[in-house]
Amino acid sequence: MTVEKNDEWGGVSEERILRELTQDGVFPIERFFLMEGMVCSWNPTEGGVLLHRIEDNQLFGACREYVRSRGSTYRSLGAVLEVAEQEKWEGWSLARIKYADLLKVTTESEANNPGNHSR
């Protein structure tokens, strides 16, 4: 995935953004995405989505724009889970159990509203 070249996101360096998101390289940047405008990541150990709380507003905005520039955005948790299932993300089998009720509701909703399940 290509990130649009931008030396600074709202006055925050790419290096600072990556340190914040990946916690100094502990978590792969490829697991990060936006969901409903929030910075999130996929946690294969827990089989689900983690919401990342960033208290500094400037840093949060920079992180959000950086993740958006990577092209990973979803409209809802249901959309994330749909892609996780389709692409067999690591930890998906745990997510299938953890979010079983939500997946059932999402599937029923899509059956009643065909064609309304875009990323």
Give a description of the structure.
- By secondary structure, the chain is of the alpha+beta class.
- The chain contains five helices and six strands.
- A hairpin with a 2-residue loop joins strand 3 and strand 4.
- Helix 1 (14-22) packs across helix 2.
- The longest helix is centred in the middle third of the chain and has 13 residues, at 57-69.
- The two termini are 17 Å apart.
Task: List key phrases describing it.
alpha+beta, two-stranded antiparallel ribbon, 5 helices, 44% helix, elongated
Determine the number of helices (DSSP H or I, runs of at least 4 residues). Answer: 5
Assign a percent range to the helix content. Answer: 40-55%
Round the mean pLDDT to the nearest integer and report it.
84
Task: Tell me which oligomeric state these chains represent.
Answer: single chain
- Main sheet overview: 4 strands, mixed
Question: Termini separation (Å)?
Answer: 17 Å
Largest sheet strand order: 5-4-3-6
Determine Rg (CA atoms, Å): 15 Å
Strand content: 15-25%
- Taken in chain order, the helices and strands follow as EEHEEEHEHHH
Shape: elongated
SS content category? alpha+beta
Tally the beta strands: 6
Could you give the topology of this structure?
Layout: E1 8-9, E2 12-13, H1 14-22, E3 32-35, E4 38-43, E5 48-51, H2 57-69, E6 73-74, H3 77-86, H4 92-98, H5 100-112
Helix pairs in contact: 1-2
Task: Provide a concise account of the structure shown.
By secondary structure, this protein is α+β, with helices and mostly antiparallel strands. It has helices spanning 14-22, 57-69, 77-86, 92-98, 100-112, and strands spanning 8-9, 12-13, 32-35, 38-43, 48-51, 73-74.
